[in-house]
Design a protein that fits this description.
mainly alpha, Tetracycline Repressor, domain 2, 15 helices
Length: about 280
């Protein structure tokens, strides 16, 4: 059967859009560029996709549909079976859509508060409920949310790792997360040999360690104050590389990169400046 010309054009537009998003990033790709690659006018693009956000929604659609089918299959299964049906299936779906997901994962919010956004929220809530199980408490629900992230986010940051290896790593990580004993189940800390606690309390930062010495110069107590809890001030090598890739692609603002990596905007700017 001959393919419908309109459908063929639509498919070509989606493929070209995905290629250009990979090359330049979603935000830096215009409808005009997509049209030029296909030798189509911008009007022809708008006939099939009234706005660029509609292109994004169409590219995300197969991922959402597969996740919905996965959750439908897990619904009604015993709690433990449903939990691992969702987790293992989630990893497989994410890997199957690895290419578009790697570019579009953090841009899905750009589809606005329309049907795609609400479907995404509904999918996430259903997955969290199935993983946490019925009558789950706060801790179980928090871990369920963390488990979904563990089965999704690595695909974005480890683009050079094969599907097979990354799948094994993600499932190993989520099993460790869900089988780890609660923090309050370990009991009170064991008696500490004399001096051990003091040695552990020495700051890792050389400047803080120096100022902590008994013979430190007067006034150095300003440096010895313990760092307030909060977001880390530095990134690991892989995180720095991921931040630079996202920034160079133009797919993420500095705020989005900071939120993704769990650090402050100043930390992101510092590492970006080091590249220059």
């Amino acid at each position: 059967m001959t393919a419908d010309p309109a459908d063929d054009t639509r498919t070509r537009i989606l493929r070209a859009a995905l290629d250009l998003f990979a090359e330049h990033g979603y935000q830096r790709t215009s409808l005009r560029q997509i049209g030029e690659r296909l030798r189509l006018t911008k009007t022809a693009i708008l006939y099939h996709f009234p706005a660029k956000e509609n292109l994004l929604a169409a590219l995300v659609e197969p991922l959402l549909a597969d996740l919905e089918r996965l959750l439908d299959a897990a619904q009604g299964q015993p709690t433990e079976q449903a939990r691992w049906t969702v987790l293992e299936g989630w990893v497989d779906v994410i890997l199957a859509h690895r290419r578009p997901l790697g570019m579009l994962y953090h841009d899905i919010a750009l589809v606005g508060r329309g049907d795609t956004y609400h479907r995404l929220i509904t999918i996430a809530m259903r997955a969290n409920d199935l993983i946490a199980g019925p009558d789950a408490g706060r801790r179980e629900r928090v871990r369920a949310v963390q488990a979904v992230a563990a089965c999704s986010d690595p695909v974005v940051f480890f683009t050079d790792v094969s599907d097979e290896v990354l799948r094994a790593d993600m499932l190993d990580g989520v099993r460790r997360l869900l089988t780890a004993p609660p923090a309050d189940a370990a009991g009170p800390p064991a008696a500490d040999p004399a001096g051990t606690a003091a040695r552990r309390a020495v700051p890792a930062d050389p400047a803080l360690a120096e100022a902590s010495r008994p013979d430190a110069a007067p006034g150095s107590e300003v440096v010895t104050r313990r760092r307030r809890p909060g977001r880390p001030r530095a990134l690991g090598r892989e995180q720095v590389e991921a931040a630079r890739r996202m920034h160079a692609a133009g797919t993420h603002s500095v705020d989005a990169i900071a939120a993704t990596l769990g650090v402050s905007r100043a930390t992101v700017y510092r590492h970006l400046d080091e590249q220059q």
